[in-house]
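re: that chain from earlier
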Amino acid sequence: DKIRDQAKTSGTHLWTAAAHCIANGQLQAKGETAINGFLKLIEQLGSDIQGLELHEQVDHVINNSGLIDHHKKEKADRGEARVENLNELVSAARGFSPDVANTEEEKLPPLESFLSHAVLESGEGQAAEWEDCIQMMTLHTAKGLEFPLVFMSGMEDGLFPHQRSINDPEGLEEERRLCYVGATRAMRQLFITYAEQRRLHGMDTFGAPSRFIAEIPEELVEEVRPRIQISRPVAAGRFRAPSEELAPGVKLGARVRHKKFGEGVILKVEGQGPQANIEVNFQSLGRKVMMLEYLEVVR
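^ sequence. v structure.
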């Protein structure tokens, strides 16, 4: 957790964050020894494979990383299968051609190109063997694949696009292109989901829908979640009926601004008209309930 927190705070990779935590004595002795040993192992392997052919690189890493010994300790069938898979990986590397796998737009180093190709081939093979299976993958892995039905989850500002990219035009544009890649993997149907409340690093967070969702033409979107529910008099019946928005843009998850408290996210709506009670999670204050007339929708 300390390494993840350091990476998040400094905006660096886990590798850099781990080295920083070790250098500054932020880890307990046992954890520091294990992490430091892992970093040194990877650095040593990286040095060892310089100048080797691709299949020799893969073979050296597999045999000197401890993977083979680790899997041999597992249950017989599972361990043997995984060792066979690793050996097959070496064979596949021997016959791999980076020039064929790379595209004009994306030239990768041989090892990175091989691993990307291996993941892609694995996804296609699974689809052929188990037609009814659900395949989970990253957006990068999905490049070049197509599926009748696609789910894109975690579509929230702060996750996708990532918090670090929101104020970086180049980073934001790169994530927008990646979002397009994911959306266009769907041949017939695309489901986009986001959470109004999420627990991250032991804390409850309340986010807004990804800004990329708002960029999709309205005529292509069918919203399946209920809209704001407006309170009705008891005499009107046991259930409350959906109603139109209180004001343009006022809905659960929308961002609003208060003159004193700054920006926040709408969590709950009760009542109707300018005096409707709106529960907002403010970035600097936390949860607070106030009347709609004191809030401005952030567009």
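Confidence is low (pLDDT under 50) at residues 124-130, 226-244.
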